[in-house]
Amino acid sequence: MTIAVGIAFVVLVYVFLGYPLLLRAVVLCRGARRVERDNSTPALSLVISAYNEAAVIRAKLDNVLELDYPREQLEVVVISDASSDGTDEIVTGFASRGVRLERRPTRKGKTAGLNWTVPRLRGTIVVFSDANTLYARDALRQIVRGFADPMVGCITGETQYLEGQSAADAGERTYWGYEGRIKRLETEVGSTVGGDGALYAIRRALWRALPETAINDFLNPLQIVEAGWRAIYAPEARGFEETAGDVTTEWRRRVRIVSRSWRAVWQAKGVLNPFRVGFFTVSIVSHKILRWLSGLFVGICGAAVLQVVLANEALVVAGLVLAGAAGLAALVSARWRRRLALPLYAVVIQAASLVGVTKGIFGIVSGTWTTAPRLVVGESDVQSGR
Q: What pTM was computed for the model?
């Protein structure tokens, strides 16, 4: 038991602290890899995947059509996954402004819609977007700049989450801030792991049809790196959206994402071969696989701590007092709710990740998704990032 706890503790320290330090050490030793950039505006196709997004799709399209990108170089396509709430009618109303609706007659999920649509796009670059994400005015110009580098095949922008008051809100913003720092370091080393379905771009020629249950913004970038291209992070290309809003919604989302991502790794097995992709194998194991399994390691350490506590009556009493005090503080103080938000969020995502891995191992995955209740992000929020 002692050996298992020791291993679990070391792995946890490595995953959340050691891996970022390792990335920094690599950059310090061999320097950051350059990314060539220019200000060209290649033909670009912006693809918005939507299922029952009537609450937000009008604001999304208004936002897209006001972006600073040459209109003659921009193709805007909305893929409706058999929406039934009026989404299609709203999108059709933008046809005179150059927006094209691609409606799927039966609901098969986001990836099936992309398989059907991407090969028929006219842009040399494809940007993938969600209906509830609004972009900063220069987002498209910023995300295509890195394609001046002939080795770059995929670029992921930065989604910034707006202010909210729940534990999931505060925890999610903190988590994604941490993720952003790791993506910057991974890009300086070589390639970042995965994309962001709210804002990522690829060279259209690199698209390959995916299994319909696959998570496109994870498997697609893995395939691109596996084929010898770089996947980089461009934090200057910014999108804005609301957080999940509550712990239950975040739990469901995390389970779904991890279950499909776990399978994606084995669908692009070449990324696990360091002789093929170099340091990227370290990144995929450290950033994703070990982190998805961290709930298991936390459980091992927690069981050992609990065993020690239960063996000492004084520690049991002290633990109950501390738990009660923390609960009372959270009830009466917004400041303490925010302080406790991150550990609560961490527990949720670690447990949900472990459930997701289990589902992925047994193939319990789905390509369809359910739209969560949406709040419309205001234009002033986009400009200020609030």
A: 0.86
